[in-house]
Amino acid sequence: MNILHLRSSGGLFGAEGVILNLARESNALGNVNFIVCINHPTNPHEELVDEANRIGVRAESILCSGRIDFNTIAVIGKLLIKYDIQILHCHDYKANFFGLLASLFLGVKRVSTNHLWTSETARLRFYEFIDGWVLKFFHHVVAVSEKILHQIRRFHLSSRKLSVIHNGINLAKYNPLGLDDRNEARQKFNIKPDQVLIGTVGRLSVQKGYNYLLEAAKIVITRNPKVMFMIVGDGDQRQALEVQAKELGVTQNVIFAGIQTDMVRLYRAFDIFVMSSIAEGMPLVLLEAMAMQKPVIATDVGDISEVVKNRETGFIVPSRNAGELAQAIVTLVNDKEKAAYFAVYGRVAVEEKFSSNVMVKRYQQIYEAVLQKR
Q: In terms of CB atoms within 10 Å, which end of the chain has fewer, N or C?
């Protein structure tokens, strides 16, 4: 079958990673996957398209000049016809809206994955409300966590067309082999071998709770000045976070690394991985870090507790609580045995439940079931 993945992308983050894994491994099952990225002309993001082309998945971007661009909708419709698409798989509220209008009279089956409704602003809450009603016109809707599924149910969609599929990662790519090149990976950022590096990865947005991480960093650095923090990613909160770091007096110990492409190498540089989010679905970067045998600390939001078992495969702490976050970091910095234990059993947990192979097989079943519906 021919499948087109539609995404309004702001960079190479968790949802983009899911799309890439899904498209690549779905191709291996005999399908033909295409990725189309909706871009704004004044702030284009080609990372998803570039990475897709690099791994052998056909991808292209299309421009969108406004909230409702009928030319963009027409272009999507032409691509659906050009590539003889049977399944249109949309991955965000804008893709859902544009994809619905483009496919209405083409006989294409529509599938949507809800990676997360963040509800960060009044505008986003309005868009997400509209999205809930748009999803009624899709043949199947996937939530990446049980909590997201609960949000979707508010819109009274038929239970028969709702599923939960946890995100999965490529375990062959994210593996702990080669951890001995830890120092080599740190040289780019002038991090010394005896310094402890706390890493986090994600879009620099309110949702990620990095303001709390910086507050925690202040506490940790006061106790141990050899602890360094690295925030990987970019976003609209970067300037505010840099100002906050300066006001807290932690700029010497906090690295804003921007967008990085070789994440496998960078994970090897980390000693501990931290996720300070105030909202999440099923975060891919957390799975990646655990697969790379990094001890993890994460906030108790979304379905994170399904991934991290507190005090078994990592630490779970309350969200919006810099003190608890700092204490967990200090504990792992000081207790190397506990950190090593979390690292080993974290990898085991990901292997058992969160491989991309399992994820792709579940999506394949949905695609096949949707095509059989009249």
A: C
> Which residues, in sequence order, are CB contacts of 55 under 8 Å at separation 6+?
20, 24
Phi/psi for 228 (5° steps) reads -115, 155
Confirm if 296 and 273 have CB atoms less than 8 A apart: yes
Q: Which CATH code for domain 179-353? A: 3.40.50.2000
- The SS3 assignment for 149 reads helix
Which residue, chain included where needed, has tokens 């291996």? Answer: 28
Tens-place pLDDT, residues 42-60: 777 889 999 999 999 999 9
Asked if residue 193 has pLDDT above 60, the reply is yes
Q: Report the amino acid identity of residue 362.
A: R
- The model's confidence at residue 67, banded by pLDDT at 50, 70 and 90, is confident
Q: pTM for the whole thing?
A: 0.80
In the chain, what are the domain boundaries?
Answer: 2-168+355-372, 179-353
CATH code 3.40.50.2000 for 2-168+355-372: yes
Q: Cβ–Cβ contacts within 10 Å for residue 37, how many?
A: 24
d(CA 149, CA 301): 14
Do domains 2-168+355-372 and 179-353 share one topology? The answer is yes
Would you say 289 and 296 are in contact if contact means Cβ atoms under 8 Å apart? yes
Residue 45 zone, left/alpha/beta (φ > 0; ψ -120 to 50; rest) = beta
Structure-token pair, residue 85? 């698409």
DSSP 137: G
Name the token pair of 178: 């080669």
How many Cα atoms are found within 13 Å in the side-chain-facing hemisphere of 253?
Answer: 24
Using CA atoms, how far apart are residues 145 and 170, in angstroms rounded to an integer? Answer: 19
Contact 7, 108 (CB under 8 A): no
